[in-house]
Write a structure and sequence with these properties.
about 150 residues; alpha+beta; 3-stranded antiparallel sheet; 3 helices; elongated
Length: about 150
């Protein structure tokens, strides 16, 4: 029996793929859980249009993500002030929340989930590189400079 997948399903295929499965598997598992629909002419036409719309939305998201990355690249580095000890170790740490707050203050809207810390929280003074990833396919590095506010 030919079916069209409504979601990406492990080991079967991706959204919109037309696959062949046993009729019992389709009737008893895929259809009740709304994982797939029968591959009849009406559904095939619907999914062709749906894929075009989905592709347009994806291109729009990619364009927006690229423009946000260009905004980030215009800022050479971000300076964050924090209290520290004599040996350069911070009292506390700088995390994703602090970095996203600083970027929002600079006028660039970011979500905490878009910033990735490679080595965990930043706990020392100096330069650090973090990853800004607004979309799973594109990313850029941000240079964070942590400076002491002690006088």
């Amino acid at each position: 029996m030919n079916v069209i997948l409504l979601i990406s399903f492990n080991k079967l295929g991706k959204l919109g793929d037309m696959i062949q499965v046993k009729p019992g598997y389709a009737r008893n598992f895929l259809f009740p859980k709304e994982i797939a629909i029968p591959a009849i002419k009406k559904n095939i036409e619907y999914f062709k249009n749906y894929k075009k719309n989905l592709k347009n939305k994806l291109e729009k998201k990619l364009f927006i993500s690229r423009s946000r990355i260009e905004e980030i690249k215009k800022i050479k580095n971000i300076v964050i002030f924090s209290k520290s000890g004599k040996k350069g170790k911070l009292f506390g740490s700088i995390g994703v929340r602090d970095i996203s707050r600083k970027l929002n203050e600079l006028g660039i809207k970011v979500k905490k989930s878009e910033i990735k810390l490679k080595n965990g929280l930043l706990r020392s003074l100096g330069e650090h590189i973090v990853l800004f990833q607004p979309h799973k396919d594109i990313s850029t590095n941000i240079k964070i400079i942590i400076s002491s506010e002690n006088k």
